[in-house]
């Protein structure tokens, strides 16, 4: 359940980035592409913090947390990559 909630948080963060790109940018689709491009490293850091909490606080090993990290990072990042690809042309 925690994994799904964290991935949901990733999608919410992506929506915030896209909204900021729309409002702070010039309103073009290129602004959405830039917002999606900026989301990916920000989400990598967020997913990494989640992994660190799992290792440090919850007591999981890095080997146990790594597949969860990859899943948590990859799903929202793939969606952001698709947004970047679609609006970046």
Major beta sheet, specifics?
none
What is the count of distinct domains?
1
CA radius of gyration:
14 Å
Oligomer: single chain
Helix content: over 70%
How many helices? The count is: 3
- The beta-strand count equals 0
**Envelope shape:** elongated
**Beta-strand residue fraction:** under 5%
End-to-end separation:
37 Å
Low-confidence stretches: none
Outline the structure in words.
The structure is a single chain. With 89 residues, the protein is mainly alpha-helical. The chain has three helices and no strands. It has one domain (2-87). The model has no long low-confidence stretch (mean pLDDT 96). The termini are far apart. Keywords: Membrane, Transmembrane, Transmembrane helix. The chain crosses the membrane at residues 35-56, 68-87.
List key phrases describing it.
mainly alpha, 87% helix, membrane, transmembrane, transmembrane helix
Short description:
The chain crosses the membrane at residues 35-56, 68-87. Keywords: Membrane, Transmembrane, Transmembrane helix. Helices cover 87% and strands 0% of the residues.
Blueprint of the fold:
Layout: H1 2-24, H2 29-56, H3 62-87
Helix pairs in contact: 1-2, 1-3, 2-3
Transmembrane segments: 35-56, 68-87
Keywords: Membrane, Transmembrane, Transmembrane helix
